[in-house]
Amino acid sequence: xxxxxxxxxxxxxxxxxxxxxxxxxxxxxxxxxxxxxxxxxxxxxxxxxxxxxxxxxxxxxxxxxxxxxxxxxxxxxxxxxxxxxxxxxxxxxxxxxxxxxxxxxxxxxxxxxxxxxxxxxxxxxxxxxxxxxxxxxxxxxxxxxxxxxxxxxxxxxxxxxxxxxxxxxxxxxxxxxxxxxxxxxxxxxxxxxxxxxxxxxxxxxxxxxxxxxxxxxxxxxxxxxxxxxxxxxxxxxxxxxxxxxxxxxxxxxxxxxxxxxxxxxxxxxxxxxxxxxxx
Amino acid sequence: xxxxxxxxxxxxxxxxxxxxxxxxxxxxxxxxxxxxxxxxxxxxxxxxxxxxxxxxxxxxxxxxxxxxxxxxxxxxxxxxxxxxxxxxxxxxxxxxxxxxxxxxxxxxxxxxxxxxxxxxxxxxxxxxxxxxxxxxxxxxxxxxxxxxxxxxxxxxxxxxxxxxxxxxxxxxxxxxxxxxxxxxxxxxxxxxxxxxxxxxxxxxxxxxxxxxxxxxxxxxxxxxxxxxxxxxxxxxxxxxxxxxxxxxxxxxxxxxxxxxxxxxxxxxx
Lengths: 279, 269
Hints:
The complex is a heterodimer of chains A (279) and B (269). Chain A is an alpha/beta fold and 279 residues long. Chain A has helices at 28-39, 98-111, 152-156, 170-179, 183-186, 200-203, 205-215, 233-247; strands at 2-5, 17-21, 43-49, 56-59, 70-71, 74-79, 84-89, 116-124, 140-143, 160-161, 219-227. Chain A contains 8 helices and 11 strands. In chain A, the strands form 2 sheets. In chain A, strands 1-3-6-7-2-8-11-9-10 form a 9-stranded mixed sheet, with helices on both faces. A two-stranded antiparallel ribbon of chain A has the order 4-5. In chain A, helix 1 crosses helix 8, helix 2 (98-111) packs parallel to helix 7 (205-215) and helix 4 packs across helix 7. Chain B contains 7 helices and 12 strands. In chain B, strands 1-4-5-6-3-8-12-9-10 form a 9-stranded mixed sheet, sandwiched between helices. In chain B, 40% of the residues are buried. Strand 4 (56-59) of chain A pairs antiparallel with strand 11 of chain B.
C-alpha cells in the first residue's frame, strides 16, 4: 500500500487519531465516515494505492463547490483542529485478500504515526442473539484496552462490549496469530465448510482490522451497531455520533455534532428519482 | 419481474464473500506484459497523448483509422489468444498498441478488445500508465455502466460525460492557455460511479499527477454514439485526423452489435 500526498497538500503530524470504516452490511461504516468528513470539513490530503482494493471512480462526493473533483477508492482526510485523520474506502477488497489488506492498513497507520484507531462497522441484525431495544439503538464496542475487549470510557458512555468476542475462539486466535507474524498460522486458516455461528464475528472485516492494528501496538476501538440492509442513513448517523462522543468532538459539551452535513453524493444514494414522465 | 430474493444486489451492497476474512483467494496469475517493437525495448515509450479505447464505439472508430501503425501488444495471460487473426480485427480479444500519425505530437493508441477482471485492473493500469509508457496526457474512452449510474438513461438519447484528474482540471483554469481536453463536455454527476479498468486507469493518472480524462458515453451499442464520439474526437482531440473513413457502413455496424434508428430504417423500406 502506497500513501500518495495530494499535490499541494501536507500531512498534519498532530492528527494522531484515525477513523476508518470496515466493510459491513448496509455500508454503514462508510456512510458514517462520509458524514464525519463533510460535517467536520475534513481536508483531503492524499490517496492510498492498494492492489487489493477494487477500482472505482466518481465525481464530487461531498461538496458542490468543487465541481469535477474525483473520488477515488481509498482516500485520506485530515481534520487538523480535531487532531483526527479519516480514511474513506469506497469499494470492496479483492476476494480472499482481506487479511492482506488489513495488514497493509496497519502498516500505514504505524508509518504515519497514528496512536488511536477507531473502526466503524455494522453487524447483521439477523445474527443478533439477544435483541434488546429497550434503550433504542445500542452501540457495541470492542477495545484493545483490556484482554477481554472492555474499555472503561466506553462503559461510562453506556456502550456494551461485544459479548460474542471470545479471544480464545479459534478464528480470533487465528487472526491474532497471523497479525503477530506467526507464519505457521497462515496455513491453518479455518475452512469455510467447517464454519459455525461463533465463527461469524471474527470472519467480518472489522475483526481483521482490529487484530492487525492491535498487534502493531496501537490503541484500537471498534464501534458497532446492528442493522438490516435498507436505508441505513440513521445507522450511519448513530455511529458517527458515537465516534464524536468517544473522541470528544462536537459543537457542545457532550461531544455531539448538532447538524450533520449531508454529502452531495447522497442525493441519489438509493437510486435516481422516479421518472415522472410515466405519469 | 425480478425476484427480490435472488436478484443480484445493487452495486452499493455486498456479496457475502466480500465480508468474509476467511474466503480463500484465487490462485495467483502470471503478470501481464508488453511486447513492443522498438529499438530499445527496455526504454519507456513517451507520448504527448495516450488514448485508451475501451468502449465498443471507440474501438470501432479507431479500428477504421487508417493512419495508425501497430507497434506492440499487451499480453494478459488469462485471456486466450486462440482464434485471433494475424491482422488486427475487431473480433479479436486483443490489446494492441498503435502510434497515430499526427504531425504535431506523438500519440499512442491502446485498443483493449477484451474484458479485464476487476482484480486485474490495478496491475494492467500500472502496465499502461507510468512505467513502460510515460504519457503527458491520457484520454480513456469507456461507456456509462447502467448499474452504476444514478441518473436517467434512455436508449435513444446518446450523450457523453467526463471525469478529469485535478491536473487536467487545473489546466483549464490556468493562465497559460492550456485548456481542458474535452472542455465542452459536462462532468459525470455526483453519486454515480464507474468501476473496472477505466476507473483504475484514471485513478492511476490522478495519483501520479498526470493529466487524464475519462470520457464515458451512452448507449453502449448504438450507431449514434459512434457519430457523437467521432465529433468529440475530431473537435477536441485529433482535429487533423480524418474520421470520415473510420467505418460507418451500416451492415458492418450491425454485425458488431450496434443498433440505432438509422441502421434499422432500411428494414422498413
